[in-house]
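Methods: holo model generation. Sequences were used as deposited, without trimming of termini or removal of tags, and paired with ligand SMILES retrieved from the corresponding compound records. Each pair was processed once, and we did not select among multiple samples. The sequence and zinc ion SMILES for this entry were:
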Amino acid sequence: MAAPNRTAPNRPGRPSLLLSPNSVLANALLRTIDLLRPRVHAARPARIEFVVGTQINGAPHLGTNLVQTAAFLLAKTARREFSIDTVVRFGALDNAPHEVVLDPETHHAYQQTYYHALGKDQVAALIDTYYTQFFNSLSEATDTDYVVETYTDQQATPGFRAEFLRTLERLESLRWWMAPSHGTVHIRIPCPGCGWAEKRADRTKLARLDEDGATFTAVCLDHGSYETHIDPEDDQPYLDLATLYRNLVKERALGRDGDTLHVDDEGRRLGLRLPTRRRRSRRTRHPGSADADADLHAPGARADRGEAVQVVAA
Ligand SMILES: [Zn+2]
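and the model returned the structure below.
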C-alpha cells in the first residue's frame, strides 16, 4: 500500500514540502514510460533528451551499461509513444577522482580529477575505449542519436556558471539539502598551480559575491592559500561540484531550455533494480554520496560506479 503522501504543515510564508514523490506513483504506473506522460502533456516539449551521467574512471560495470541501455530504449519508446524527437545525452563525468591523498599533518583530503590527471585527449581516449562502440551499437539498435558532453566542457559554459553563482545567493538554505550529513557543500576549485583541490572543501571559503562573480579562498597541500574568481563569462577556473550540487546546477541550467524536456535517468528510479545483496554492498562501500569516504586512497582506474540517470525533468 502506498505510504501517505505527507507534506510539511503549511505555515504562513513557508512553502509546504513534498516529502516523497515516489509515494504518489505507487501502484499508479503500468509502464515506466508513463512516468513521463504527465510531464509531456504539461510541457509539450519539441524534443526529449535522456541524460545519462557516468563517471569516466575505468571499465564500466554491468549496472552502468544496463542504465545506459535503458536510456536508449526509453528514448525509442518515448519517441513512439509521444511522437516527439528524442535523443540521448551522455554526460561523461571526467571530474571523477583519479587520486586522493591525505595531508599527513592536518588530515585534510586532497583530490585530483581524471581531467586534471590525464588531460582532455586522454579522457577522450578513455571514452572512446569504453563507450563509443557500445553507444554506436545502442544508437543503431534503437535508431536514436546521442551526444557526448564531458563535465569539464559543461562546467565551462556561461549557463552552468551563471546558475552556480545564483545558488551561492541561497547557499544557507541549500546547504543541508546538498550535504545532509554535515552541511558543508563541496565546492572544489583546484589550485591554479597544481590542479589539486580540497576534497571536502574544508578550507574553501566564499570570500565575496557580487555582480562580478564570486571569489573563493582555499588552501593547497603544496602551495598554501590561494584565491580564485568565478565569472560567468570566463571558463576558468575549473569548478568541480559534488554530485548533488552538480545535479542541482545542471538541472536548473537545462531547465531554462523551454523546448526540450530533459530526463535524467537513475537506474533504480526507472525500475532497474540491482539484486539486494549488490545494493547492500554498494551502500556499505559508498555511504552518503558519490564522493564519500570510501574513495580515499583508491587511486587509478577502477570499476566505475557513477551511473546517474534521474527522472527530474525541469
Ligand atoms: Zn597547488
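Residues 1-10, 267-314 have pLDDT under 50 and may be disordered.
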